[in-house]
Amino acid sequence: MMEPGTYFMEGNTACAEGAIAAGCRFFAGYPITPASEILERICERFPEVHGSYLQMEDELASIASILGASWAGRKAMTATSGPGFSLMMENYGLGLMTETPCVIVNVMRGGPSTGLPTMVAQGDVNQTRWGTHGDVGVVVYAPSSPQELFDYTIKAFNTAEKYRLPVVILSDEMVSHMTEKVEVPPKDEIEIVDRKKPEDPPEEYLPYRPDEDLVPPMANAGDGYSVHVTGLTHDEKGHPSVDEKTQSVLVTRLIDKIRKNADDILEYEEYKVEDADTMIVAYGSVYRAAIEAVDMAREKGYKVGLLRPLTIWPFPEERIYDLAREGIDSFLVAEINFGQIVYEVERCTGGASDTYLAPRMGGTIHTPEEIVDRIEAIDRGEIPAFKE
Amino acid sequence: MMEPGTYFMEGNTACAEGAIAAGCRFFAGYPITPASEILERICERFPEVHGSYLQMEDELASIASILGASWAGRKAMTATSGPGFSLMMENYGLGLMTETPCVIVNVMRGGPSTGLPTMVAQGDVNQTRWGTHGDVGVVVYAPSSPQELFDYTIKAFNTAEKYRLPVVILSDEMVSHMTEKVEVPPKDEIEIVDRKKPEDPPEEYLPYRPDEDLVPPMANAGDGYSVHVTGLTHDEKGHPSVDEKTQSVLVTRLIDKIRKNADDILEYEEYKVEDADTMIVAYGSVYRAAIEAVDMAREKGYKVGLLRPLTIWPFPEERIYDLAREGIDSFLVAEINFGQIVYEVERCTGGASDTYLAPRMGGTIHTPEEIVDRIEAIDRGEIPAFKE
Amino acid sequence: MKKEIRFSGFGGQGVILMGHIFGEAAVIDGKDVTLTKSYGPEARGGACSTDIIISDDRVHYPQVREPDILISMSQSALDTYVSELKEDGLLLIDTGLVESSREAEGLHATEIAGEELGLKMVANIVMLGYFTAKTKLVSKDSMEEAVAKLVPEGTEEKNIEAFNRGYEEGNK
Amino acid sequence: MKKEIRFSGFGGQGVILMGHIFGEAAVIDGKDVTLTKSYGPEARGGACSTDIIISDDRVHYPQVREPDILISMSQSALDTYVSELKEDGLLLIDTGLVESSREAEGLHATEIAGEELGLKMVANIVMLGYFTAKTKLVSKDSMEEAVAKLVPEGTEEKNIEAFNRGYEEGNK
Amino acid sequence: MSIRKSRDWFSPDYMEQKSKKEGTYGLHPLDNYLRKDRIPHIWCPGCGLGIILNSYLRALKNSDIAPEDTAVVSGIGCSGRAAGYVDVDSFHVTHGRAIPFATGLKVGNKDLVTTVFSGDGDLFAIGGNHFIHAARRNVDFNVICVNNFNYGMTGGQAGPTTPQGAKTSTTPWGGFEQPFNLPAVAAGSGAVYVARWTTYHVEKLIESFEEALNKQGFCFIEVLSPCPTGYGRKVGLKTGKETMKYYKENSEIKPDADPSEVALDPEDPESKIIVGNFVDREAPTYQDERGKVFGEARKKMEVDG
Amino acid sequence: MSIRKSRDWFSPDYMEQKSKKEGTYGLHPLDNYLRKDRIPHIWCPGCGLGIILNSYLRALKNSDIAPEDTAVVSGIGCSGRAAGYVDVDSFHVTHGRAIPFATGLKVGNKDLVTTVFSGDGDLFAIGGNHFIHAARRNVDFNVICVNNFNYGMTGGQAGPTTPQGAKTSTTPWGGFEQPFNLPAVAAGSGAVYVARWTTYHVEKLIESFEEALNKQGFCFIEVLSPCPTGYGRKVGLKTGKETMKYYKENSEIKPDADPSEVALDPEDPESKIIVGNFVDREAPTYQDERGKVFGEARKKMEVDG
Amino acid sequence: MSEKEEDDDENGSGERCYPAESKNREGSICVIPERCKGCGFCIEFCPVQALEASEDTTEKGYRPPKMTGDCVLCGKCEKVCPEFAIYLKEKEEDEERGEWI
Amino acid sequence: MSEKEEDDDENGSGERCYPAESKNREGSICVIPERCKGCGFCIEFCPVQALEASEDTTEKGYRPPKMTGDCVLCGKCEKVCPEFAIYLKEKEEDEERGEWI
Ligand SMILES: Cc1ncc(C[n+]2csc(CCOP(=O)(O)OP(=O)(O)O)c2C)c(N)n1
Ligand SMILES: Cc1ncc(C[n+]2csc(CCOP(=O)(O)OP(=O)(O)O)c2C)c(N)n1
Ligand code: SF4
Ligand code: SF4
Ligand code: SF4
Ligand code: SF4
Question: What are phi and psi of E114, to 5 degrees?
Fold first, then answer.
């Protein structure tokens, strides 16, 4: 691990260093702008920490190999951007189905398709939730600075280990290519969570029988538990089953594992919400424009607050529901896409507030002025509430 | 094409025959349960109609090659199920970005991951919309019978050609493996739409300049127009650009192309809606249980109606919005997943009605009784309204 | 009229074909008909069945829950499915292969096929003939047409013979 | 205090490095600082720039829009960016390479580096010294520390020399 | 947490205790290596997959390797179900991805003797790229490839090993693609051990598996195997037995044959199925090479401070 | 709709008219084959890609093939940008998928003389599987593979062609993987034409491209090319010129060398870069074979009624 | 061939063991009927044709092998059986001959 | 080497043409300066060292070639130029020697 101290560090570097600090000792990746610096930093640093770096032939291989490494007991990570993330969708599902702890970083760039490879966007937000076939419960973090990339990469590993699933870090080109001050705390101040190991002897161990927290203890390969792991619907033994009941029990648990632990996982921040009647919702790099927009708008006399999800999924839906009922007239979602989180916000308000979108198609982030203009325009009744 | 007449045909066969009737002459695929019979039927029939069948090495190749074939002027199709569809996500985006007409059939089976390969589910509904990185506008049909598989495969080709995009047919194992009566109409009664060709000479032709309908005429490779096609953000010439404005114009148009033509594309059916206070929403195979549930519930005195989206995307959002305001107290969404379309329904009601979910994790479809039970339970106030 | 019917037996007996022939005949007769089958992970072996719903009106819900008629060509199929048969349902069996504690009608289709007709393979068609006569759900003509259409090329005659043999038995 | 600064030039002049050294020094001085850069599809060539926002408080919005200070090491960089400079902004140029119609200060960094110091490559560090003296945004000590830390191993001395040479010029 | 030292559990004693308790002691001698509660397996009567599994377990038993130091990784397919029957750590991953998963597993824990057991479609259709790259890197594991000339699991479609001309569900009029010669692909990509056998050659197969289990580097064994349901049925080999007899009568053992010359040519009635251990060479593994470079890097770091 | 017969537009006359109107007549003789409004291209000074594009366009010009009967397909990468500069129907698809896209294009319209122009990473890292399968099938198109020993576009990372030991952005301590020998992979998978040249060998390159354009079946040409920015810089060949000189001094033309023996071995200072046209053989293409089978199927159907 | 005598079902598992001897070795060939799928490999590839399909069928309708000839305890049958349904049980384990297990 | 004379910029495109003759052939070598990226390939690989970098730089800072020696009209420079920035223009097209274009 790096010496504790204050560094001037690029976001991607901070992400790699966060991973190393979290105990990541296996990394498999395939270069892609704007995530490549994560790979490159790992390559430089892994000899020192005795990590295994694999440059795979593609993203399909990258994600498959981190799942394998995780079962070998390693903390494992991969990093990519939209196109590579799209290729990972099948094995993202395998990781979720087999409850394999690992971390996937997606540094978002302009899409769809090859799009704007070197420029910022936030178009993959809903993909992290719906991109793989079938129903899944996911955890996704959206940091806004190199410091948060460092901190939330550690947190992502901890959540992955604690809840046994691939956790996504949704960075964007702006955050990842920005260089800022990063405080690296002393080792003993960093909380590290490791997966629960079984306490039962092998003959009694059921690899998919959950504890009360809905998470089953995990035996690694080589631990002598003779685990069977399959992407097929499986019972508590891990054996495939074509029984509808087994399917229902399994998939419900996978989703409830996140839903019922949402209190523990969910993170969001609020700013100047007390007297607000309008809330901006923003995340990732746009959050940094939004926070300035709040102050600018307030100078102009608008009572604006800010809600910033740090976990995109689980989403702070109840908080929005409550805000909508407690006097917020309108929500303005600023995101670099044509509307993704805004659907969720609109749904959560249950019609009790109006929902507006400040869209942007990618390239740069919103300016604070642009957001304030939008607030003014809404105030003048010029913008129809968001309805696709 | 098949002789007109009445056949007793399996869903997958009907789909293949619909494709042939629509003029599909290129098919690339990779076997997967429960979609393989589509490939197999195509293989049997293609020599006769002088079609090209390619069994590719995987789904990545399958979708890439139908995009290529489409640019060669062929009507092209591929068919798969969840795992293969997940692998297609990157090139689904390429197809949408390059406005390449083609048809992708996804016969849904139990997920996530390998899940329940031989059994029905509806877990890929949101994936069709959000599965690729970046923002896109999509068209997705959900047929409920072999007859509809035949008819809507033709329609899918027509929509693909008319609006220049990959259109998805979202079948499910139940519909695809069901054998029923299929009426094959005489050739001249089948409407066939072909892509608009440019009327400008090559030196004036701008391959991405849209007409008023937002769709640009399309020159095939070999037509002498020297088109350039790229997944990068491109201007009307088709040349790559890193200009934010170009990105905004392009992506906005790609989404508006569907949004603004929704009146033409959108299809849904209603049943006994006039006096209803409760609406079931169901699609695909579940629709067939839901329609019986309506009658059963009415016998028990409940005023139940049914809304059945035939296009999942675009979604009948305005209709739901209106129904919610015109006296529907509650919507009950029956789908074989843990809640996908239900989010959309809840959003569209704007809080004016309650939304409930009748979930099912896959294996079999809902029984009508099960849906009626749910209605009764809602009536008794036993089920909380849907909130994740 | 709406009936739910399950054809059952073990893999290789042509149970799925029975369903398809019956369905085809029903279509010829202008009925609405829905055929479904269930799959497991095994490519072969185990009990196997085809479900049919036949109706004068549109068949909506496609799955058979309580068959009105159960045809069982093997003991394990009978054992698996008999409990689902409607209380007043009709049970038809190959009496040579299946023993039923519940009231059942039937004929020794396998024997008729193998010994009388010299082709064990057509036992399913013998049974179909019997079934047609017993239930009268579709016309004999349509069934014959469907048999001829769906059996392997070159075996049409033998199969029609088998069908008629079973039909005869059923009419006794 | 909050300032927006843009370092600009053509690829190969070490413009990005300038930003990083300055940022590093600002961090040593306890400031909040955000560095961003823009990328194009080309791996090489064309105008290139690094943007820095330095502030006593937290820097939120990370992008430079109207720089308070623009440093231009090439004509095309000046031409591209000068219009964005704040009205009362400070413009620093390599007077040997750049002509400006707008008021500017500067020195012939490339000449000083090449002829006086015998290493053309360190022109960027000469300019940094000049910039440090002119703006006093961060301390000289911190800049020297940052230079020593970030330049290639073995060239520290030469670069500190270059920095001081530029600093001297700036203080004149 | 109190985890008992795992090694005890797999001692012969423990195995005996376990099987006695389950009342299976004295039954099949491989039962202790099988997830017995899942036997009989789902494979069709006459399918060759059970023979290959049988051989693999025998080889494992013969070797000195403790079961808990062993892992099996399979993709999707009938062959891919193998992972579900072996009573060692076993992974049944997505279609085509057994090799990269195994790469992560092996690189993650170098003590696990890892075997990929999967089908020709899984490994060479959808998984072809991973195969050639893992062979190129010489990652230290074994790949058992069951070649039944078709996709069995999905209903007998043609794949990259289906002989030209063969009728399958997707080539009802006959196939028109050149198949791969798998030993040549493996050898050409860098495998250090390359063999081909058929399910008829059980003794050789067991030997070959043992050799691979004990060898460092990327080892590849192709096993031709009857699939009466999917493939055999359509090419006139209706039962597994017929196919086995065909193998017996038409194979020729040619150890050290040039892999590029062992292509199967069913259109030539004279041609033989060439079987044997074609390649067995030494080369540093991926792990060795990376260890060397990283070790030197660490030295350099220390010197540099 | 009134579409003018396309063929007229590409007549020499038309081309002349067009370029005269644009005021470019008399300028570079390849300008009519270039999307001039996009020149200068984005490639770095000293990059070899422009030479290869130059050679390809010369070959196209020399051949009898009308530009409108020609298509170029590229994946993603610096090399992948080639499709954007040629004034023929051109496709810049997703990373690694140029070959299956081209397969669809060519099978969809057999009259299009199709060339895949892409990078070693695109074709052999992410795209490796499609490559070996298209070669196996012998689909009728040409693959020009620019081998610059690294991923240029993304900043000089190691790839499947990077020599062992080379320092790159992802092997800062030296590489530890065996690279592919591309001509061997191509020949082993079934390519009917296999050549390797460097950007120094322009005349040979043009010849080779012409041969490939005129040949039926899957043709593969590897071109070693300087990437001063990504690769050269880190291995001591700082400029394109130095790399070109290196190619000049260290290449040996060996036509008909066995592709399996032309692996590049930069660690051996004695070893040469073997270049030449290694394979040139006839074999029925995918299209031929399918045509035959489908033709027979149609006959059979007619007979059967 | 004449029917061989069958051992008792020693362990209640339904298996059937047929004693055999060859040279100095003694043992038996055991069949676990409910595992057999009747592929006939053991019967076909027994070098001395010691096996034959039995008349009685299993629950699933398969006919497992029974011994009718003189087994030489070669072990081929247990190796070609895809179902782990037949095996050779040696009376005394002979270290030196361990390889034929 | 002595500076060669430069043709007029015939077509207003900024290109510079240097006349040359060899054996029976006449022509010129033309340079389109704004395309040149100064890689030096043309200079390096000219078999008779007829080219040299010019002193003046283009807008982007590159130094395109100029002719200072005796060009033999071999066409190598136009083939090695990655930028389509230099080419050989023949005065009269000679069918028989078409191959060296
Ligand atoms: C992504 C994906 N595509 C397709 C499938 C369907 N599928 C399952 S197994 C299989 C082929 C199996 O063939 P092979 O590997 O040869 O194994 P076999 O069944 O013949 O043993 C296919 C195509 C899948 N599960 N996942
Ligand atoms: C799915 C996906 N993964 C990764 C990338 C990033 N990427 C773009 S080009 C490239 C490699 C290019 O290397 P090569 O094909 O050798 O071409 P070169 O740039 O060297 O000419 C990569 C990894 C991408 N665009 N898409
Ligand atoms: S389908 Fe073929 S490979 Fe699969 S179990 Fe049956 S015989 Fe074996
Ligand atoms: S990075 Fe390399 S390959 Fe790419 S343009 Fe530059 S020199 Fe060429
Ligand atoms: S052990 Fe050998 S001889 Fe005895 S039954 Fe088995 S195969 Fe035949
Ligand atoms: S080869 Fe071309 S780009 Fe290079 S110096 Fe010569 S003219 Fe300029």
Answer: -110, 135
